[in-house]
Amino acid sequence: MSNYLKDEAEYEQNQTVIKRGRALDPKIVSQYLQLFFNSAIGAVGLYIMMKFIQLVNKDVQRKMEDREIAAMKIALDCRNQYSINKCHPDARAPALEQKCSEWYYCMNHADKNKNFQQSATLWAETLAEILNAFLKPISVRSLFFILVTSCGVILVTNMAFYSYRIQYYGVTRDNGR
Known about the structure:
Elements: H1 2-23, H2 26-84, H3 97-109, H4 116-135, H5 140-174
């Protein structure tokens, strides 16, 4: 029985050594570094994309408010014209019949012009304005350089991690490890 306990203690000690050795294994360390690097790149990209969407959303909201204020001003003007020209149905002058109908329609339907289609159109317009404002001062050559450099850094770093693992395991196999 004591022989069994001795074997079990030795087994536990060997497992601890194996676990420590695997934790410091260069292949595993390089995989974790590569995972961290790629995760950081992805997180930065996701952050930039979310900030860009928030920027577009704020601009769209501001433009929607501007359009709503403009529509309210038009409705107020129509209401003023309707009351100044005494367009109430019982006091309306026959010559102003068509104009009074237009003012009535204008003051009662101006606030009902909000809908999803206008919002989607405003999103597209705002997105186009932002992209044009961003790309206009940047030359095609500069944009191409930034794109190639960014992709190159990501590609070279991943290839370096990968080739390190291949070279490390080629050397350790040759040494009989």
